[in-house]
Amino acid sequence: SETVTELIRVCPDGLPEWDFLPRTWDTGVTYSPDGRTVATHGISLAAVTGRWERQLTRPPRRASDVGPVWSPKGGALAFTRERYRGRYSVRSRAVRIYQNGSGRFVTRGFMPAWSSRDQIAFVRGQYDDSSTHKLYIASLRSGAIRRLTSGSAPRWSPDGRRLVFTRATQDATAGTTVREIATISANGTGLRRLASGEAPSWSPNVHWIGFHDPAGYAAVISPTGRGLRRLARSPRAPLFSPDSRWAAYPSRYSEELYLVPVKGGGRRWVTSSSEELELLDWRAAPASETRC
Questions:
Q1: Shortest CA distance to 92 belongs to which of 112, 69, 78, 108?
Q2: For the residues of 42-67, what is the DSSP string, one character each?
Q3: Which residues share a beta bridge with 93?
């Protein structure tokens, strides 16, 4: 049987905590830039108050829309449309945009990331074989598409000038695939390897990159490659607070949620669960929201 996921909001001090959406089958959830709305696989929108939920896209038969990401200013979403030959065999993947009440095709690929400069980074290759993944950028203004380098899971810096991503390299001695995080400029120059690991993301102030290291730690590092710091044992990468001062991470067995200062200091317990916890997104509460 499939596992059912509950979507829950919690304040950094652990209280209050409440369900804000009905039970859902998916965990792909991302806050809008203003913190008032979330987008989910589907593609659906829902108010964080739980007062309404609305389906946006209607994929054709034997297709699904997944992995929504917001435009930096809000009001539009990029996502991946998967088309299937059968129940489990994917025929194609394409990056699409939903805006002003309608959707449109952008390019072949998957894992879109939308920059503040109206560029979308995305990946091409065999979805389940990271060694084939290549990073591309599509300009939404000109329509031009440019290949950057090998890699996947791109994330833009807040200023839209650089990307951090995961790439797979071969260890010739051990004969194994090694994952590392790296950065590259939007024009394809300045490739810099930072550390072994995966699932990177930028802090909102651009001073840190969070990732999950091979030894099983939530970790942070400077974009210069200096200041590597392991925060705690965790099965996932850390999630930065809106002010970049804190990092959230689930405990080693994903049953407790903690915060830790990015620059050092003791951890703070937030909440626990008898079920597995997975961090999805963190946004500042809107001015009208008084629960936190």
A1: 108
A2: TTEEEETTSS-EEE-----TTEEEEE
A3: 82
pLDDT of 85 strictly over 90: no
Beta bridge partners, 24, equal 5
If you count them, how many residues does the chain have?
A: 292
The 10s digit of each residue's pLDDT in 159-209 is 999 999 999 887 767 677 889 999 999 999 999 999 999 999 999 999 999
Say if CB 101 and CB 120 are below 8 A apart: no
CA 277 to chain centre: 16
CA nearest neighbour of 98 among 154, 61, 59: 59
Distance CA 94, CA 42 (A): 15
Residues in CB range of 33: below 8 A, 6 or more apart: 70, 72, 73, 74, 283
In the chain the first and final C-alpha atoms are separated, in Å, by 36
Q: Count CA atoms closer than 13 A to 275's CA, side-chain side.
A: 9
pTM given for the model:
0.90
**Mean pLDDT, residues 233-257:** 92
Count of alpha carbons within 13 angstroms of residue 138, beta-carbon side: 21
Residues 74 and 33: beta-carbon distance below 8 Å: yes
Contact present, 276 and 247 (Cβ < 8 Å): no
